[in-house]
Amino acid sequence: MATTDSTAPRGYHHGDLRHAILAAALDVIRSEGPGALSLRDLARRAGVSHAAPAHHFKDRAGLLTAIAAEGHDLLAEAVAEADGLREAGVGYVRFATRHPAHFQVMFQPELYRADDPDLVAAKDRSTRELRAAVAQLGADPELAGVAAWSLAHGFATLLLTHNLERAVGDGDPEDVFRVLAEISFTPPSGRTPE
Q1: From the centroid of its chain, how far is CA 68?
Q2: What is the pTM of this model?
Q3: How many domains does the chain have?
Q4: Domain co-membership, 51 together with 70
């Protein structure tokens, strides 16, 4: 089977145009950020008329809404596979590093339609999985959730923006996160959690 050069523009020839536009959008977001997205440019990249993407995504906000919804579904899967809160955090970090374009869009509600039914359902799934992991702490679930989310989201964000290169070094970011979670959620010896 012949492979194609991943640096060559990929045109849409047949099949799933929606998927082709989403894939092209994720490439643009990864390399240039969500502000660089243009449906006209994505149509050019896919080799279709400039109006073709609008059949699937009405406009730029519609495309970003679809990306955010897909991201929340992927996040829900990553967290659901985890055993315990620490591993749920690792799943969160793994999701962010494997899907950085989704991660960039999901937490910028000004980019998309927050009331979109598919997005609302996907956010509910990811929130439910995250809350289930936090419930194991036995602490105030709201505050424990904020603490756990702050740690995982902050670590993932700093990692993706290359602000942890010195701290992580050649180590596996997931292992580094496990140590941070242990430090953050294990009381010092001799003390019991309040």
Answers
A1: 8
A2: 0.84
A3: 2
A4: no
